[in-house]
Automatic annotation (TrEMBL):
Pfam families named among the record's database cross-references: FUN14
Segments traversing the membrane: 20-38, 45-64, 107-128
This protein's UniProt keywords: Membrane, Transmembrane, Transmembrane helix
Native organism: Drosophila madeirensis (Fruit fly)
Protein name according to UniProt: FUN14 domain-containing protein 1
Length: 129
């Protein structure tokens, strides 16, 4: 019980200090908290992105067998009915930007491998930035 009173007394003592001391203490505590959380989020992003890419490579090399979920996702996507992969085509200047974006979307949505690799690469890029 006496520890609780000591802590309360210490906090009351901070409110009696000058505004400059209070501002400096608040800024220092906020800076330290933000720095630690930012570093932790970068490490988490690096770990998550690296894990995604390593797992994708393990599935590709056959170390890990593909899961039934992967088969369902590949066959069930509306733009990828029947597990047909979209093939990239050469774009011409006569296509509108919207048509080019639709073709890019078709290529990306048609391959879960590209989507997963993009997600892993994004997390690695975020963590290393």
């Amino acid at each position: 019980m006496s520890e609780c009173l000591d802590t309360k007394g210490a906090l009351d003592g901070l409110s009696r200090r000058s505004p400059y001391t209070q501002i400096a203490l608040g800024a220092g505590t906020g800076f330290l908290t933000g720095y630690v959380l930012f570093k932790a989020s970068k490490v988490a992003a690096i770990v998550a992105g690296g894990t995604i890419l390593v797992l994708q490579l393990a599935v590709q090399t056959g170390v890990i067998k593909s899961s039934p979920l992967e088969t369902i996702v590949l066959q069930g996507h509306p733009r990828n009915a029947g597990n047909v992969r979209a093939q990239p085509t050469a774009t011409t200047n006569s296509q509108s930007p919207r048509e080019q974006l639709n073709k890019a979307y078709d290529v990306i949505a048609g391959s879960s491998r590209i989507c997963v690799a993009m997600c892993g690469g994004f997390l690695l890029g975020f963590g290393l930035a």
